[in-house]
Amino acid sequence: MQSFLSLLLFGILNTTATPIAWNCQPAEWLSTPELKNGIFTAALTSECTVGAPGGRVLNLDQYLLDRVGQGTTIHEGPISETYADLPSIRYDLSMRLENDGNPVTIRSDVHFATDRKDRFVYASASKDIEATGTASYLKKVTERVEVTAQPESQFRFSVSSSIEVEQPWYAPSGAFKSQTTKSFVSNFQSARDQRVPHWGEKL
Questions:
Q1: What global pTM score does this model have?
Q2: In CATH, what number does 2-10+39-201 get?
Q3: What's residue 72's pLDDT?
Q4: CB burial class (10 A; 0-12, 13-18, 19+) of residue 67?
Q5: Which residues, in sequence order, are bridge partners of residue 72?
Q6: Distance separating alpha carbons of residues 123 and 108, to the nearest angstrom
Q7: Alpha carbon 74 to chain centroid, angstroms
Q8: pLDDT digit string (tens) for 55-80?
Q9: How many CB atoms are located within 10 Å of the residue 165 CB?
């Protein structure tokens, strides 16, 4: 499960971050880990700051919209909507991955919302996951990144993610909960530390 979570969280970021001034606070629990009726749930969040002189949230919005369809299948979209009280574009996308040689397909609703000035929100929520092997136990994953312009060319990144993972029948409850918690925290922080400077460079 650990290898798949590290692959999945925050959009499979195989990028080299451009040097940029940034820092993140330690991750905190939005929802503490819980194992109930064989389903593990948890949600994490972290606040980050990026220095991007001349940056604009509109630049990041356009960069991400231009990448829609690269490595994904578009089922529906672009669809105009309102999301998080902002004008938004929604896509229904599928992403195909491999986990230990086994195919994994994740279908999600993805939102790109911005006021074109001070605030941008990216959010995705899986609605179907087809997989074999350990990846088949992942039932849902969500992610959200809100970027807000601050004074003196600073931008605040609020990063969050949640997961739902089914407990394998053979896994002892205590060990499963402990290992999944550790994997989630580690991979959340790793993905955050790739995404924040990379997206900051695109502002």
A1: 0.89
A2: 3.30.530
A3: 87
A4: exposed
A5: 95
A6: 10
A7: 18
A8: 999 999 999 999 998 888 999 999 99
A9: 25
